Amino acid sequence: MKAIYMPEPWQIGIKEIQQRPLESGEALIKIRSAGICGSDINAFRGTNGLVSYPRVIGHELAGEILSVPENNPKGLKPGDRVTVDPYLYCGHCYPCSIGRTNCCNDLRVLGVHVDGGMAETFAHPANMLVKVPDDMPWDIIPLAEPLTIALHGLHRLQLKSGEHLAISGAGPIGLLAAIVAAEAPGSAVVTDSVTSAQLADFLTGRLGLIHRRFKRGYKNVINEGIRLNQEGTPCLLAIETSGHAAMGENYFLDDGAYVAVKLLIQAARLRREGRTLGALLEGLEEPLEAVEYRLPIRAEDFRAYGQQVLEGLEDYANGRPGWQTAPDNCEGLRISFPEEKGWFLLRMSLHDPLMPLNIESSRPGGTQAILDLLRPFLARWKELNLSRLP
Ligand SMILES: [Zn+2]
Ligand SMILES: [Zn+2]
Known about the structure:
Elements: E1 2-6, E2 13-16, E3 26-35, H1 38-45, E4 55-56, E5 60-67, E6 81-84, E7 87-88, H2 94-97, E8 108-109, E9 121-125, E10 129-131, H3 144-157, H4 172-183, E11 188-191, H5 197-206, E12 210-213, H6 218-231, E13 235-239, E14 245-247, H7 256-272, E15 289-296, H8 302-317, E16 324-325, E17 333-337, E18 342-346, E19 354-361, H9 366-378
Parallel strand pairs: 11-12, 11-13
Antiparallel strand pairs: 1-2, 1-4, 3-5, 3-9, 5-6, 6-10, 7-8, 13-14, 15-19, 16-17, 17-18, 18-19
Bound molecules: zinc ion (2 copies).
The site of one zinc ion (ZN) has 9 residues, from α2.
């Protein structure tokens, strides 16, 4: 039978494999559909340290039972439509004994520690299959697995109706910067290199803060905040786009709970005035288009190669009409294109043999136009894999 097979990172293909013999208690399933999870992509990129290779991936699975032991506990029959619980656990370690089988000491995840189900048939313990309605379309059944992750989180929270909850992610940089601007007008805020032009305008224009656009990586950002203070530039907030925020008054600890409390206090104050936190973000625009491409470097010494690319780009950009090199850039090369109302940032990844390329624009089609301007330069670099560019 055919299976989706990864001999090693960055290599994927269809391979002829043998269905392994069934163990006792197992059902054989004809796979009809499978989801592609972020963790499958990380397995492909080689950035999920838990994945061993070679590997057949796939843990979001739906299929039809071909055979199942008689008298199985769930009463499953051949022909039933099922989805798969992909987390194989031992059943007798401490986490398993208290019902946290997802934390099993010997957890084996399909497609990660053991072969997954992107194959024509798949063998799995019958008690780890869940029957789904006959009229449920094949293409949506695999979504049951990621859905259970969200449901599990909600169950752990034990939410009751009428309770309120905060979902982090809705503009924390702008919110925290607005709070800091009121407490310490004109002080500095450090963000990372991918910060949008619109957020930078909001920080300096609307809030009147000094903006230091530094490097990727929350430790880099926080250390830069500490350095600015030592140098005599007051800085009260260092925050990375992923949401890692550190505040000067909290000794620049990477402390999410502190930040959440800070926002809640502000929300309570605003409420007295009949306003909400969202009011603090007035005037903050979003880029119309934002894309990120990750370009693998094939060269053995990828850091040196990436450095050469960046030096070459600096020469290439110099004096080219319409290309404006950002003077205050701390990582990679950031070039603005006023006509396209946008910019790109090409840099080295912190850890991986690849160069992330971010492009933003506030004009429809602008990111594609900027990519087309950059493409002839990128095409000169034979060890740079451009196959993921549109
Ligand atoms: Zn998944
Ligand atoms: Zn266990």
